[in-house]
Amino acid sequence: MRLIVTRPDPDAAPLIAALEAAGIATLHQPVFAIRFRKAQLPDLSGCQALVVTSRNGVRALAASGGGSALHSLPLFAVGDSSAALAREAGFADVRSADGDVHDLAALIRKSLNPAAGWLLHAAGSRVARDLGGLLGEDGYAVRREILYRAEAVRRLSDGCRTALGEGKADGAVFYSPRSAITFASLVEEAGLSAACASMTAFCLSAAVADAFAGLCWRQVIVAPHPRQDALVDEIFAFRQQKD
Fold this sequence. Notes:
The protein is α/β, with parallel strands linked by helices.
């Protein structure tokens, strides 16, 4: 079994290691390159908490030079992976929604009073869901600071094109709606859309699966919970059935 991993570095490494440890070959085809901005954070006066919806948001905050004022604020993370990285980066009060952006909004509503101050959302240039819109309905003021951008690659690697063209990939793994859309576009531009008809798409969430347009997969499998361990379990279960 051989899978195309579309997640960019450095977050692809743990997934690749887990798959290859289980005897599943991988081909790393990141569809984005992450570029961090050298942006100065706003004055944190009146800010009651930090919010991150990705591991890159944590990295951007950690590299921002915010110092003790930044690290003293509670940090709300969309999932356990982002939360763990935040703790490693020195944030003391870290709370995980262990889910998606709707779970994160629910955790914030349960934990914070909108009258107590505004929230700083460390984000990329594009976001899959409007966290500020979700929370704004309840009176929360969310300031989205664009601290990094995910630049789509312009073409598939030669190795990926060859694997698709020769039918040497059994599936591909996707973590975000935008990664699904970008991969579909790259495959179409390469004239290799037909290759997906014999492949399985492994998706972190239903929103990721819904993002595919124009690609006909043999099968689409969605993790029951938007966590990497749940997605890996689905891949292992699929491999067992195939064997």
